[in-house]
Protein: dTDP-4-dehydrorhamnose reductase
Amino acid sequence: MKVCVFGASGYVGTSVYKSLESMEDFEVSGTYLDHNPIFDNLYKLDINEPESFSDFFKKESPDVVIWSVMNGPNEHVLTDQGLLHLITHLTPATKLIYISSDFVYSAGKGPYVEEDPLSTLPNDHLFSTYTNAKVKAERFILNELSNYVILRVGPVYGENQAGKMDERTEKLFRQLDSGQPIAFRDDLIRTFVHVEDLANVIVEMLEKDIIGIFNVGPSEKRSFYEFMSGIADQFGYHSNLVEKDSEYEEADQEIPKDTSLITEKITKTVNQNFR
Ligand SMILES: NC(=O)c1ccc[n+]([C@@H]2O[C@H](COP(=O)([O-])OP(=O)(O)OC[C@H]3O[C@@H](n4cnc5c(N)ncnc54)[C@H](OP(=O)(O)O)[C@@H]3O)[C@@H](O)[C@H]2O)c1
Structure:
């Protein structure tokens, strides 16, 4: 089975690419945009460029495409251009695995099940670019495709297969190593998922030819403060340097409070145990 990982140089994409590469059943290719890839054989591709995208896709002709792409302030371009190019190239036989976000539930009154309605944010909201692009992307996929998996994922953490930690944990370690306190919000509730568990789920879903929409992660939900204190403990730091952050917010910049996920569906579908 030919699998192409778009965003294989990224934090999540690295582990997905490596996990698939180590398995006999998969012939894996991957792409990056700007950053020097850690794997020699990734293709440099701007997914938003129609001609180079089309050339690449026709040459590769994958059976499965994994979307592990993210681009901060340009996330809307990824959906409006990159994802649309991709969708126009997919045949009914080609499967798309799209990594989405818990922010599609941006009303922030979790925990959420997969059937709950998606919410967008007002255009002038601080998080609207990412959130609204993800919601739009999911709607494109639902309208245009039948052979897809959408994985809704909260904050991803842990060491990936290139030895890279998520940025939040890297920052925690930097602060604690220098003996400085660091603060996290106790009122923002999430379902945290380990990067390796996410990569394993993707492999298992491909092996079992599963389709549909899934919230991904363990059954526990935690605040950022609880979770990061736990990480500090786990790595032998004094967690008294981890403090509770102020909960003050500007009204038009409010962060969705509880985007935690009910993950029963995925737990019944795959064997992966979430740590
Ligand atoms: N990390 C999280 O906590 C989290 C949480 C929820 C959902 N997700 C989802 O998980 C997926 C992966 O996220 P991540 O954390 O691994 O992101 P990341 O580390 O920022 O990686 C993003 C990847 O996208 C590539 N890319 C960016 N713009 C591109 C373009 N125009 N054309 C082609 N490639 C492009 C980057 O290439 P370069 O490296 O070369 O720039 C990189 O490989 C995303 O769909 C994201 O929404 C992540």
